[in-house]
Amino acid sequence: MIGAELPDEEILGKAYDARLMVRILRYLRPYWKLLAVAFVFLLLQTGTQLLGPYITKIAIDRYVSAKDIHGLDMMALAYLGVVVCGFIVLFIQTYTTEYIGQRAMHDLRLEIFTHLQKQDLAYFDRNAVGRLMTRTINDVETLNELFSTGVVGLMGDLSIVFGIAAVMFWLNWQLALVCLTAFPVIIYLSRFYRRRAREVYRQSRMILGRLNAGLQENIAGVATVQAFGQEERMYRRFQAVNLNYRDVLLQSIRNNAMFFPAIELFSAISVGLLLWYGGFQIQGRAVEAGVLVAFLQYIQRMYLPIRDLAEKYNILQAAMASSERIFLLLDQPETIKNPAEPKRADKFTGAVEFKNVQLSYQPGDPVLKNISFKVRPGEKIALVGATGGGKTSIISALCRFYDVDSGQILVDGIDVRDWNKQELRRHLGLVLQDVFLFSGDVGTNITLGDPRITEQRMIDAAARAQITPFIDKLPNGFHEEVQERGSTLSQGQRQLLSFARALAFDPKILILDEATSSVDTQTEMLIQQALHELLKNRTALIVAHRLSTIRNADRILVIHDGEIKEDGNHDALLARGGLYARLYDLQYRFQERDGGAAESASTVG
Amino acid sequence: MGQTNREPEDRQILRYYHRVKFLVDRYRRLIVLGLLSLIATDLAGIALPWLIKGGIDRALRGAGDNSSLVTYPLLILLAASLQGFLRFCWRINIHGFSRRCEADLREVVFGHLQKLPLNYFQHNKIGDLMSRLTNDIHAVRELMGFGSLAIVDAIVTILLSLTLMIAIDPWLTLWSMMAMPFIPIVVRYFGRNIFRWSRATQDQLSEMSAYTLENFSGIRVVQAYAQEENQIAGFNRISSEYRRKTMWLATLWGIFWPLMQVHAGIAATIVLWLGGRQVLTGSMTLGEYVAFNGYLAMLTWPLMAIGYTANQYQRGTAALTRIAEVLDTPIGERYAEAKEPQPLASVRGAIELRHLTFSYGAGQAAELHDLNLHIPAGQICGIIGETGAGKSTLVNLMLRLYEPAENTIFIDGIDIRQLPLRQLEDAIGYVSQDIFLFSGSMRENILLGVEDGELARVQEAARIAHLSAAIESFGAGFDTIIGERGVRLSGGQKQRTALARALIKNPPILILDDAFSSVDVETEEEILRELKQFMAGRTTLLISHRISTLRDADMIVYLRGGRIIEQGSHAELLSRHGAYFSLYQRQSLEREVATLMHEDGQR
Questions:
Q1: Residue A55, by phi and psi: left (phi above 0), alpha (psi -120 to 50) or beta?
Q2: Domain boundary among B168, B202, B237
Q3: Nearest CA to A513 among A408, A425, A433?
Q4: Inter-chain contact B601–A560, Cβ cutoff 8 Å?
Q5: Which of A25, A320, B78, B136 is 20 to 30 Å apart from A168, CA to CA?
Q6: Residue A192's pLDDT is what?
Q7: Which residues of B touch A253 (CB under 8 A)?
Q8: Do the chains contact at B583 and A518, CB–CB below 8 Å?
């Protein structure tokens, strides 16, 4: 499963793939009217490019040579008109193109993000979040270039090149032929350059990726580098990549330094040919002076797009590779699907039942084997057992983060697979050990930004979770920004915050993974109080670590190795003299010796 | 803003010039050659319109001997070839210079950054440092390379073109230049705004990345609280905002380029209008008219370059300031030569703390208060305490990752600040709480701290760290690439890799800072059992918040709030019925369950 493989960012495929292109174009369909506008303006823009030199020709041949000053004025005015029109047309064309591209990319991003929201947890276990982010953000960005620069730019360039060629032939085909004799050479040269540029481009991207990854890694791991005294070695390693990158870029500089001057040279050769052949023709009265001048201008305008064509090819190529990755992601089906016709409980009571449940994350390696138990509405169940025994898997299966292999999980008598996922989860309040904090303020972390939770409800929840005193001490109260790695909240306070979150959502069934991390006595007492509040009037499944929590539960399930080893309330299990009894015995003895400290005092409830 | 800001800006570039002076010295040849060929390119370029003029006028002069018709085209070809060659030369030299500068500067900054004290990294986010190493160096490169040389190009071209235009027709020059002075101003205005908006879009893009990253990391909570729609709405907002900002940027660009064309276009119109009259009355030849147009077109780019370079100068200076800020931060004290270095012949591993007090910064609360402790060589010392008790701080000080005061930490009786750094680093095998693995292979990661690594040693370290089975299960064994930060390993595998990495150094002192938090209790026990043999004859600091990890230590220290509150062996501490005892109780439950289950399973 693990092996040396290339990160897929480094692979560049074809520059054009019809299948992919069709699919990309689908995202433009909603904007086809605007697209038509952009296209029309693209042609108009080409028109303005062609008109300028032509007006010059008319001015010279018709009016200057006839000494018609009024006509010349008119032509100057027309020229000015073309300049102004060119400005407007080019602006509209650029703006609409960009607008369509941005719209389409926004749609695509949203589709990817939405798609990912619906993937099951196993998917996120398999795929590194960094890579998923790259798909949603960077690949879409690359694709965007395809629209704004790639496709439209390419079409614009081509239409100018062909437009100019056409006008030149129309004005004087012999002259045009002479001017364009250099063309086959240029095409050959471009292809040659393109091939080399493409290789260099691919390499530079790859090495740049490595360079940046190395930089990032060395900054993030600076403590390890220093602790192991590896500065020199890391420096040498970085130096090697850095020099490698420089050399690839120097190669690209050499390529460009040959190609671009060469194109300019050919443009000058065309001019030379024009003057030479044109000179003969003028002498033979076969061509007018204005045509010569117009041709000079046309040649100038023609070489710029030719120069850019090769670069645009690279963009096209990168975009194709990006779109391929994006579509691969979008084609990944949702594994945990909502049923076509979800069932719902008329009046939700909060009963849970596991019936012969087997669950495995990897085929053939079940983490839950034949688990069966029933929870009545309002009942509190403590799950006890060693780490890795299956407690957390029971929770995950109940939330339908994973689908069971066999058996059934019923919530209010309805199979979890028949529930609408979101609705089911709204009835379940999950509180995890590792409290995940979102960036944003304390208040948002309680409500998660859910519009249905009013401010009053949030404040109440905080109060009931005993966290208000802490929040009041923060400079901005509920509006204090939470830092992911920062020290805004301590471990214990994070716990309380997650309690407040659950209280704000007020679920019928509470699922709690009790934190093992130790907190000071003061916070411990607050947690106990908040927990008491949290459990009120709810069905509860608790992965319990505190003796007090276990003793307070209506029933205790001892889970080990994916199976339920013992099931009963505290007294029954004690009387049975099994695992739990011996366990309790040990604990109890400690507490006796301790003289009955806070722990036992708070357990009597 | 411009006027008041200019003064300090100029001084800034002088102040930081010494940071890049070495590059100018190093590549003087490239700069000189580049500049010369650039000027020569301009000279060859300026000849072209003049030759075209000659060509046209010769052609229009009508009959005569046809052989001279070929002269001008040939001259054009010659000038163009010369220009092409010279252009190649300046491109190679100047672009080569700027890219070499970039690489060298990056290397210098990287080398410096590596040795900065750790608290520097606490105050500066990775993203920010990365942007200095990429964007800022990029900006400095542009300033040093083409940016400053574009000015030379611009001045030469403008002077030459104007001279020749005036030579053709002074009045027409004056009229046609009417619109031109606006070009640098427009470029400067748009350039600045385009830069500002592209910054804004970049920031928005980062925000969008951060949002998705956070969402994917917290997907469990998102799904558990059925917040998908809500999150999608949030993403939609950010993405729309990004779209909006990008559109602004596109609008600016969309006006800017056509506006440049308008300037050139208006000038061309004036030439057509007024120049056309001159041709019409015969006071100007058609060749002159065409050449004049050619020179006019040549002016557009240099005029743009002036505005462009002004912006680049501003940006480059700001970037250079940020880079200099990194370079001006002194490197960690640990790299300084000790005042009176006292190397040890060999490290035995006795550790002593004397009145060790430490805080991370002036004005910050002390993390450690007057710690006094003596660990004889070869002993195992357990350090227990809650998060924030100062355990990791202590380790950081021992490794001089943060600098302890003089005469507070001693190894074999020598103040660690007087030990050669290399000796200190070699003496300590260290597994940190926050494991950092590098993206290479398993073998490279295990061999991090040692120069020579035969496979047998790697295997042995892996065996003790209980990693052999896991490595075998990977397709490529020790050559398995573990991905960025070891993403392809589980938490426990990461910790065990870090352990192997510490063991292979064969250090007299072993520091395990919460090294088993991600392995289950049974595996931990097995590893500890295996380690016992390894630890014999070495001093070991076993740091944990789990009592089970360190109950067998020779001595246990309970840290709370940076002070030692209890100290003694496991049995002694239990019998004291103090803080250690109550912690023990709290932790027992899970542990006992595990043990019982385990026994139960075996029965």
A1: alpha
A2: B168
A3: A433
A4: yes
A5: B78
A6: 87
A7: 91-92, 95-96, 99
A8: yes
Cβ atoms A320, A14 nearer than 8 A = yes
**Number of domains making up chain B:** 2
Last residue of a domain, one of B136, B168, B200: B168
Instruction: Bin B547: left if φ > 0, else alpha if -120 < ψ < 50, else beta.
Output: alpha
Considering the domain boundaries, does residue B379 fall inside one?
A: yes
CB spacing of B212 vs A113 below 8 angstroms: yes
pLDDT confidence of B11, banded at 50, 70, 90? low
Strands A406-411 and A440-441: unpaired
DSSP state of B365: P
CA–CA separation, B312 and A254 (whole Å): 24
Measure CB to CB from residue A257 to each of B91, B111, B227 and give the nearest one.
B91
Contact B59 A279 (CB under 8 A): yes
* pLDDT tens, residue by residue, B476-524: 888 888 777 776 777 788 888 999 999 998 899 999 988 887 776 677 8
- Residue B524 forms part of a structural domain: yes
Provide the shortest C-alpha distance from residue A462 to chain B (in Å).
17
Q: Which of B48, B217, B232 has the CB atom closest to A129's CB atom?
A: B217
In the predicted model, residues of chain A with pLDDT beneath 70 are 1-16, 150, 386-388, 483-488, 516-521, 583, 586-605
The structure tokens listed for A536 are: 């009120």
What CATH number is attached to the domain comprising B92? Answer: 1.20.1560.10
pLDDT digits (tens, 9 = 90+) for B175-229: 988 877 888 888 888 888 988 888 888 888 888 888 888 888 888 888 888 888 8
Cβ–Cβ < 8 Å for A491, A520: no
Residues of B in contact with A579 (CB under 8 A): 593, 596-597, 600
- List the CATH number of the domain containing B589: 3.40.50.300
Question: For residues B284 and B289, what is the distance between their CA atoms, to the nearest angstrom?
Answer: 7
Q: How far is A525 from chain B (nearest CA, A)?
A: 14
Of the candidates B66, B113, B226, which has its C-beta nearest A425's C-beta? B226
- Identify whether B256 is part of a domain: no
ipTM of the complex: 0.84
User: Which range of residues forms the domain containing residue B583?
Assistant: 351-436+486-602
Residue B107 in domain: yes
Say which of A95, A256, A268 has its CB closest to residue B80. A268
Chain B residues with CB under 8 Å of A220 CB are: 126, 436, 485
